Amino acid sequence: MMTLTERTVETARFLATDPVREARVGATTYEVVHHHNKLRVLHFAPRGPVTANPVFVSMPLINRWFIWDLMPGHSLIAELVAAGVPVYLVDWGKTGPEDNEVTLAYLVDRMLLRALRRAERDARRRYNTDKLDAIGYCVGGTFLAITLGQYPELARRACFVATPIDFHRSGRLALWAQPGHFPVDKAIDAFGNYPGRIIKDAFAWLRPQGQTRKWVSLWERIDREGFPALWAALEKWSNDPVDFPGEAYREYVRRCYFENALVDDSVDWVMANRAVHLRDVTVPAHVIAAASDHIVPPAAAFALEGAWGGPVTTRTIKGGHVGVCVSGVLAGALLDWIREG
Fold first, then answer.
1. What pLDDT is attached to residue 211?
2. What is the DSSP letter of 244?
């Protein structure tokens, strides 16, 4: 066992190598099957025989997609394809100043919709399947819910992972994002796109002790095999936030945080000439919430039960909003759901 001094020296040596910059992320090979502006659809082929219907994964545009394929031994995607599940995943790319006028309707009704349909066509050719099982993570799940609310029969089934549905149950975020507290119009007028670094910092402010804890955790586990590399990879992902296109963010905040439009039936939400009604969706849905999620509390995710038109099942798993993606727990929960179909 290391002494306190040895542990401190080893931690300093590790950090001196600039491990975050040098960290290698991504564990699984893929093929790009669709491009739309900066969006890509990545196809991850199964290892061995196909054992399940292909899945389409809608990732959040505010973070990089590779949190689901972080590194060998900590890759949700690798576990799915190893189990024989074909995966189509949305990579939104990096938002730039030229994207500040991109609307929420364009992101959801054009880009995500086309991505899902393109993945469906590719899966039909490769796997002789008609419809995909759709999975959404975090804001990617919210976007998926909106899309299905417009096109109810688009997917065979849907699974929402740590996805905010009732935004008024989002804890401190719901308090901060009230009309009287958050001048979203002034922010977008000033920034153009809403900076990803501010979103990242806001999540950190929800649990400020976590910023200290991550350094303590590195020091405590510096001698644990594989942990320093995992720590560096997570830091690389965390330090690469993506800006939210300005006009899209303006409507996202108004509709979701201010009006709570996904669960409030009195709100008339029309996007690209199509109403958004979750009650019109009759395909089965499954909701997975993380027990220690301080960004999307289980209550905010499980609210889908009262808003969805079809049958809804729920499950709580151990971990936090990000930790479940690399711990292996989420992969097991998803495989349970996939195999049920």
1. 85
2. B
Torsion of CA 155, 288, 55, 247, to 10 degrees: 70
Best CA proximity match to 233, nearest among 322, 143, 160: 322
Query: What does DSSP say about strands 285-290 and 312-317: parallel, antiparallel, or unpaired?
Result: parallel
Q: Assign domain 25-177+246-340 to its CATH superfamily.
A: Alpha/Beta hydrolase fold, catalytic domain (3.40.50.1820)
Three-state SS for 144? helix
What's the token pair of residue 335?
Answer: 């495989």
Phi first, then psi: give them for residue 326, nearest 5 degrees. Answer: -120, 0
Q: Show Cβ contacts of residue 110 under 8 Å, excluding neighbours closer than 6 positions.
A: 36, 272
8 Å CB contact between 28 and 81: yes
Amino acid at 190: A
- pLDDT tens-place string over residues 18-39: 999 999 999 899 999 999 999 9
Q: Where are the domains of the chain?
A: 25-177+246-340
Query: What is the C-alpha separation between 160 and 324, in angstroms, rounded?
Result: 14
| Sign of torsion over alpha carbons 320, 323, 327, 331 | positive
Query: d(Cα 124, Cα 116) in Å, to the nearest integer?
Result: 12
The C-alpha atoms of residue 167 and residue 164 are separated, in whole angstroms, by 6
268 burial (CB, 10 Å; 0-12 / 13-18 / 19+) is exposed
Cα–Cα distance for residue pair 124/121, rounded to 1 Å = 5
What's the predicted TM-score (pTM) here? 0.96
